[in-house]
Amino acid sequence: KQEVTQIPAALSVPEGENLVLNCSFTDSAIYNLQWFRQDPGKGLTSLLLIQSSQREQTSGRLNASLDKSSGRSTLYIAASQPGDSATYLCAVVEYGNKLVFGAGTILRVKS
Amino acid sequence: KAGVTQTPRYLIKTRGQQVTLSCSPISGHRSVSWYQQTPGQGLQFLFEYFSETQRNKGNFPGRFSGRQFSNSRSEMNVSTLELGDSALYLCASSPPGQLEKLFFGSGTQLSVL
């Protein structure tokens, strides 16, 4: 059974810092890995999708990497801003659009 | 283009009742999936519908069911509600040929008293 773990569970940083969120998964037989952002009481917004054949994806200040062999992914956020404060969720796709999610990292960026 | 719309936004029910939640996908999207989010279990996959057929199902009891209509709108039903069913229920739709690209609605917050 696929299990996804995210570390740390919570993170508080001053504005402007670069930061790394970690995600690990137990079964490397995945189609892709996705990072989402969730604001309180809201739905999820897709940030980055990395296909299983890819090593990384970039969007603006965000960069996500994938190492299938070791079962790890990282989300790098450059020059963090207060507006980045949210819960960040990592999810792996086993098939179709059945996603297995981690518990998330709650990020707070202080101004 | 309108996003995924879920109604109602909030719902309060009592144990033993049943509830129906509605999801309207983005226009042109034919795949709809449902997720349950709780503080203890996090986000868990419920089921996925495509062209009115259930294609995948998560590990939830039979009290949880769903359906999809010809216009791709979907409903999920929970019968004989339990306190543990209190959760945020999220619906997501996917564009044709890109099943892994999910667009989520804002969810229905269900409270069971």
Write the layout of secondary structure elements.
The complex is a heterodimer of chains A (111) and B (113).
Chain A: E1 4-7, E2 10-14, E3 19-25, E4 32-38, E5 44-51, E6 56-59, E7 62-67, E8 72-77, E9 86-95, E10 98-101, E11 105-110
Chain B: E1 5-7, E2 10-13, E3 19-24, E4 31-38, E5 42-50, E6 53-57, E7 64-68, E8 74-78, E9 87-94, E10 103-104, E11 108-112
Protein model, in words:
The complex is a heterodimer of chains A (111) and B (113). Chain A is mostly beta strands and 111 residues long. Chain A has strands spanning 4-7, 10-14, 19-25, 32-38, 44-51, 56-59, 62-67, 72-77, 86-95, 98-101, 105-110. In chain A, strands 2, 4, 5, 9, 10 and 11 form a six-stranded mixed β-sheet that branches. Chain A is globular, with a radius of gyration of 13 Å. The mean pLDDT of chain A is 94. Chain B contains no helices and eleven strands. Chain B has strands spanning 5-7, 10-13, 19-24, 31-38, 42-50, 53-57, 64-68, 74-78, 87-94, 103-104, 108-112. Chain B is mainly β and 113 residues long. In chain B, strands 2, 4, 5, 6, 9, 10 and 11 form a seven-stranded mixed β-sheet that branches. The mean pLDDT of chain B is 95. Chain A binds chain B through residues 31-32, 34, 41-46, 49, 89, 91, 93, 95-104, and chain B through 4, 31, 33, 35, 42-45, 48, 55-56, 58, 88, 90, 92, 94, 99-107, 109.
Which terms would index this structure?
heterodimer; A: 111 residues; mainly beta; 5-stranded antiparallel sheet; 0% helix; 60% strand; B: 113 residues; 7-stranded mixed sheet; 4-stranded antiparallel sheet; 11 strands; globular
What is the compact description of this entry?
The complex is a heterodimer of chains A (111) and B (113). Helices cover 0% and strands 60% of the residues of chain A.
Main sheet of chain A, how many strands, which sense, barrel? 6 strands, mixed
Report how far apart the termini of chain A are: 41 Å
Runs of chain B in which pLDDT lies below 50 for 5 or more consecutive residues are none
Helix content of chain B: under 10%
Please count the helical segments of chain A.
0
The span between the termini of chain B is 37 Å
> Mind describing the biggest β-sheet of chain B?
7 strands, mixed
General shape of chain A: globular
Number of strands of chain B: 11
Strand content of chain B: over 45%
- Oligomeric status of the shown chains? heterodimer
